[in-house]
Write a structure and sequence with these properties.
By secondary structure, the protein is mainly beta. It has a single domain, classed as Methylpurine-DNA glycosylase (MPG) (3-methyladenine DNA Glycosylase, Chain A, Roll). Helices cover 13% and strands 33% of the residues. The protein is built from four helices and ten strands; from the N terminus they run E-H-H-E-E-E-E-E-E-H-E-E-H-E. The longest helix has 7 residues. It binds a DNA duplex (12 and 12 nucleotides) through strand 4, strand 5 and helix 3.
Length: 177
DNA sequence: AAAGTGATCATG
DNA sequence: ATGATCACTTTG
């Protein structure tokens, strides 16, 4: 059985945490029971200077969660339909997060949240203590590939090009395009 | 290739 | 109050 990840591990900078989260277990307790899925794909978003990061225009009602302590859940609605789930990371006051793009069996950030019943009621949840949503480390460390982040055409070229997407090598992900 | 969907944020 | 913009998914 895995061990819950705590504040220290989840407060690493997002570009360090994103590859480390590959192979970790995303755990969700609902009325139906406990679901655990292994994380296979992540992306990191790194502060106000990262033009792809939601906090690139500063702190707002929506983005204030990104400035919280590492280990806080950031869940927001995308395209009016999909809840997207991020793990806030880095030090408090600095907006960084890791987007979970894929877990075992579900490739796509909107699909995995639907499968695990992760919605915006979990926005702001402290995953280091939560009974509803947390991360476990059972020691599995997959090798991985890096790639450019997806769906951020609005960012400046510098930040579009950075290899801030991390894909576990044995993940059966659907290539983009 | 393109619609569908609604919160969010800047503008007036 | 209004309108553009989306860290996506599904359908044809």
């Amino acid at each position: 059985m895995g061990k819950r990840m705590g504040r220290k591990a989840l407060s690493r900078p997002a570009d360090v945490l994103a590859p480390e989260l590959l192979g970790k277990l995303l755990c969700r307790k609902t009325d139906q029971g406990i679901l655990k899925f292994r994380i296979m794909e992540t992306e990191c978003y790194m502060g106000e200077e990262d033009t792809a990061c939601h906090a690139s225009k500063g702190k707002t009602e929506r983005t204030k969660i990104l400035y919280e302590k590492g280990g806080t859940a950031y869940v927001y609605l995308c395209y009016g339909i999909h809840a997207l789930f991020n793990v806030v990371s880095g030090r408090e006051g600095h907006p960084e997060a890791v987007l979970i793009r894929g877990v075992e069996g579900y490739n796509g950030p909107g699909k995995l949240t639907r499968a695990m019943e992760i919605d915006r009621t979990l926005n702001g949840e402290d995953m280091t203590v939560s009974k509803r949503l947390w991360l476990e480390d059972d020691g599995y460390r997959p090798s991985y590939l890096t790639a450019k982040r997806v769906g951020i055409d609005y960012a400046t070229e510098e930040y579009r090009e950075i290899l801030w997407r991390f894909i576990a090598e044995d993940a059966r992900y659907k290539p983009v395009r």
